[in-house]
Design goal:
45% of the residues lie in helices and 16% in strands. It has 21 helices and 17 strands. Strands 1-2-3-4-6-5 form a six-stranded mixed β-sheet, sandwiched between helices. It has a five-stranded mixed barrel with strand order 11-16-15-12-17. Strands 13-14 form a two-stranded antiparallel sheet. Helix 6 (103-122) packs antiparallel against helix 7 and helix 16 crosses helix 21. The longest helix has 34 residues, at 128-161.
Length: 641
C-alpha cells in the first residue's frame, strides 16, 4: 500500500498504523527499534509510551510522522516540554494522547484503582471478604509496580558505575530536551537521502508552525523564521543495517560522538548562532508516585473505617471506625508504627497496614532514582553535545549567486564533478540548490534571475534570497566581458577589487563636444574575501587571474566603439558585466561580506558570441571552490546580519 492509497498522512487509519507497527517488529533490527521508540518506563515493568500503532496515529495527526508508505516512514518526537496540548484536536485525539503519553501511569494506576472501586462497591452488599481481597490485591499490585521502580533504579545505579560511551548516554538522555527521530523504517537504503531531506523539511515546518503559533497571543506574526533546531537521530531506532550505514553518509548529517555511535544529528536548516538551550526535570515521576500513594490512602481510609465499624460491635474504643481515625492510622503506618491509642482488629487490616509501610519505604529508593535522573540532566555529555551544536550553528554559510540559467548549470556541473550531490530546497517564493559542506562551510547556489531589462529586478530577487537564507558570505559567480584582449584570454578569471556603476553619468559640453563624467558609486568588496581569494591565487593552477575593478551597468555591450570608450575612461578596469555593481546595495542591509568572481566569456565587441560562456562560468566556479577548499572561510569573524 502506498501513501497515496492511504490518503492524507495526517489522518492515518488504525489498520495502516498496525500494519506499519508489524513491519517494524518484523524488520532486521525491529525489536531493538521497537524498544528505542518505546523505551522502558520509570517503573521497569511497563513501557514509557503507548502501543506503536497509537504513537503513529497521534504523530500523524500532529504532523510529526514523515509518511511515504508502510515501508518508508520516520517518526519525529518533540522535547518533553513541547508536546502538543492534550485537548488539541478533539475528544478522540485527547484519549489517544493519554494512552500514548500516560501509558505507564495507566498501567500503574488503572488496575488498583479498578480493584478499589469494585471493593467499595462490595461494601454496601456486605461482601466483606471480596472487598478485602480486592483491596489487598490492589496493594500487592502497587507493591509489585514499586518493586519495578526499585529494580530499575538499582539497574540505573549499576549502569552509572559501568564505563559507558557518550553516544549511549546521549541516546538515553538527550531526547528529553531535543527534537529526535526515535524510529526510521526504510526498506530501500537507496532512498535514504530523499527520506532524510523530507525529515529535515518536516522538522523545519513544525518549528516554524510552533514559533508562529506562540507569537500570536503576543500580538505579533513573524515574517521569516530561521530554524536552528538540531534533530537527534537514534541509530538504534533504524530498522535495517543498510539504513544504519546510509544515514550517517547523507548531506547535513553530523557525528558529534564519532563514527559508529548510537547518535547522529541532522543539522539545522539555518546555521546561524543562537540554537536552543533547554533543560528539563526528569524527576516528575516522583511527584506522581507521592500523589498516587496519597490518593490510594484516601480511598483505603474509607474501607478501613467501614470494616472496623461493622466488625467491632459494642467494643469500638481504640479502633479506627471513623474516616479521620482511619486516615490517621494509615498515616502513622507510613512511619512503620501504629498510633498508641489506635489499632485495627478486623481480619486483614494488619496486613494492609504493613503493605502501607512497605509503600512508604519505597519512597526512599524512588527519591534516589529521581535525584539520579536530575543529575544526568546536567551530565558532561550534555555539555559536549551543546558544544558540538554551537559549532554547527556557527558554521559559515556561503551563498553563490548567479544571474542566468547557464551560469547556474555550469556551477552545478563543477560541484557534481567534485562529488557533491546538490539538492533543491524551497522557501517561497525562492528555491536554492544545497551544495553540501566544503572545508567546514555550508554552500548553496541561488539564481537571481529578475527582469532582464532591469537591474533593479535582479537586485530585488537577490535581496529577498539573502533575507531568507542569511549567508555569511555572498559570492557572485558567472561571466563577464574582458577589456584587454592582448593581456587577457577568453576563460580567464576576473576578481573584483572594486565595482563601478558606469551607468550613472553626467554629460556636459566641453569645447562643443559631449564630455561624460562617471557619478556612480565605487564600493569595494569585503576585505576578508578579497584577501582569501588573493591568497588562493598562489596555489591556483587554472586560467589566469585578473584582480581589479569590474565595471557594472545594465547595458548589454555589443559595440567596438563603446568598449574603446570604456577602456579610455577606466584604464585600470579588468572586466565589465551587468550585475556586479548591484552587490554592495544588495548585501549592505544584511551586512553580508561580498565579492564578484567572473569568467571572461567575450570582449563586449560587435562579434560577441556565447561560444565561451559555459566554460568561462565553469572556470569562475572552480576558482571559488578551490579557495573554499583551502579552509580559509571555515571560521567567520562575525555572524550573518
Amino acid at each position: 500500500m502506498t501513501a497515496a492509497e492511504v490518503g492524507d498522512s495526517r489522518h492515518l487509519p488504525f489498520a495502516v498504523a498496525r500494519a506499519a507497527a508489524r513491519a517494524v517488529r518484523r524488520a532486521e533490527h525491529g525489536r531493538q527499534a521497537y524498544r528505542t521508540v518505546r523505551p522502558e518506563g520509570t517503573m521497569g515493568w511497563f513501557r514509557g509510551s503507548g502501543p506503536l500503532s497509537v504513537m503513529l496515529v497521534v504523530a500523524a495527526h500532529e504532523g510529526r510522522l514523515v509518511w511515504r508508505g508502510p515501508g518508508s516512514f520516520a517518526l519525529l518526537k518533540p522535547p518533553m516540554t513541547m508536546d502538543e496540548p492534550y485537548t488539541a484536536g478533539g475528544l478522540r485525539l485527547l484519549l489517544l494522547r493519554i494512552v500514548d503519553r500516560r501509558w505507564e501511569t495507566l498501567c500503574f494506576a488503572g488496575p488498583p484503582a479498578l480493584a478499589v472501586v469494585v471493593a467499595l462497591g462490595c461494601v454496601p452488599l456486605h461482601l466483606w471478604r471480596t472487598a478485602i481481597v480486592l483491596a489487598l490485591l490492589g496493594m500487592l499490585y502497587v507493591t509489585f509496580c514499586v518493586s519495578g521502580v526499585v529494580a530499575a533504579g538499582f539497574r540505573g545505579l549499576l549502569r552509572s558505575f559501568r564505563r559507558r560511551r557518550e553516544g549511549e548516554l546521549a541516546a538515553e538522555a538527550l531526547p528529553a530536551r531535543r527534537w529526535s527521530m526515535p524510529l526510521c523504517h526504510e526498506t530501500d537504503a537507496g532512498r535514504a537521502g530523499d527520506l532524510m531531506r523530507e525529515v529535515s523539511d518536516r522538522l523545519s515546518r513544525l518549528v516554524v508552525r510552533r514559533v508562529r503559533a506562540a507569537s500570536k497571543p503576543q500580538g505579533g506574526q513573524p515574517d521569516g523564521v530561521f530554524v536552528t533546531e538540531v534533530l537527534l537521530c537514534l541509530v538504534n531506532g533504524i530498522t535495517t543495517t543498510a539504513m544504519r550505514e546510509a544515514v550517517p553518509r547523507q548531506e547535513r548529517v553530523g557525528l558529534p560522538f564519532g563514527v559508529g555511535t548510537d547518535v547522529v544529528v541532522l543539522e539545522p536548516r539555518d546555521q546561524v548562532p543562537g540554537g536552543a538551550k533547554r533543560t528539563f526535570n526528569t524527576a516528575s515521576f516522583f511527584l506522581w508516585y507521592v500523589f498516587g500513594s496519597a490518593g490510594v490512602l484516601l480511598m483505603l481510609a474509607y474501607l478501613v473505617a467501614d470494616q472496623e465499624r461493622r466488625s467491632c460491635g459494642d467494643r469500638c474504643a481504640g479502633r479506627p471506625t471513623g474516616y479521620g481515625e482511619a486516615l490517621r492510622w494509615l498515616g502513622q503506618r507510613l512511619l512503620l508504627s501504629d498510633p498508641p491509642d489506635l489499632r485495627p482488629q478486623s481480619p486483614g487490616m494488619a496486613l494492609l497496614g504493613w503493605l502501607v509501610s512497605i509503600m512508604a519505604l519505597m519512597t526512599v529508593p524512588v527519591a534516589v532514582v529521581a535525584l539520579q535522573q536530575v543529575w544526568r540532566a546536567a551530565d558532561r555529555m550534555n555539555k559536549r553535545f551543546d558544544e558540538e551544536t554551537d559549532a554547527v550553528l556557527a558554521r559559515p554559510k556561503i551563498l553563490l549567486l548567479v544571474a542566468t540559467p547557464g551560469e547556474q548549470r555550469a556551477t552545478l556541473d563543477v560541484f557534481r564533478r567534485r562529488g557533491a550531490k546538490p539538492y533543491l530546497e524551497r522557501r517561497s517564493p525562492h528555491t536554492v540548490h544545497r551544495l553540501g559542506t566544503v572545508a567546514g562551510a555550508e554552500l548553496m547556489l541561488a539564481s537571481a534571475v529578475g527582469d532582464p531589462s532591469s537591474s533593479a529586478g535582479v537586485a530585488q530577487v537577490a535581496t529577498s534570497i539573502i533575507s531568507q537564507w542569511r549567508p555569511h558570505y555572498l559570492v557572485l559567480v558567472g561571466t563577464c566581458f574582458g577589456l584587454h584582449p592582448g593581456e587577457q584570454a577568453l576563460g580567464d578569471i576576473a576578481v573584483s577589487r572594486q565595482t563601478r556603476d558606469v551607468a550613472h553619468q553626467a554629460v556636459t559640453d566641453v569645447d562643443g563636444r559631449a564630455h561624460r563624467l562617471d557619478r556612480g558609486p565605487r564600493p569595494s568588496p569585503s576585505a576578508e574575501l578579497l584577501g582569501v581569494l588573493t591568497a588562493a591565487a598562489d596555489s591556483w593552477s587554472g586560467p589566469a587571474l585578473h584582480i581589479g575593478p569590474i565595471l557594472g551597468s545594465n547595458t548589454l555591450y555589443r559595440s567596438d566603439e563603446a568598449i574603446v570608450e570604456l577602456r579610455r575612461r577606466h584604464p585600470d578596469a579588468v572586466a565589465g558585466d551587468m550585475e556586479s555593481h548591484l552587490l554592495n546595495g544588495v548585501a549592505a542591509e544584511r551586512k553580508v561580506d561580498w565579492i564578484a568572481v567572473r569568467g571572461i566569456s567575450d570582449w563586449g565587441t560587435a562579434d560577441k558570441s556565447d561560444t565561451h560562456r559555459y566554460q568561462a562560468a565553469v572556470h569562475a566556479a572552480e576558482f571559488v571552490l578551490h579557495a573554499i577548499e583551502l579552509g580559509l572561510l571555515s571560521h567567520p569573524t562575525d555572524g550573518p546580519g
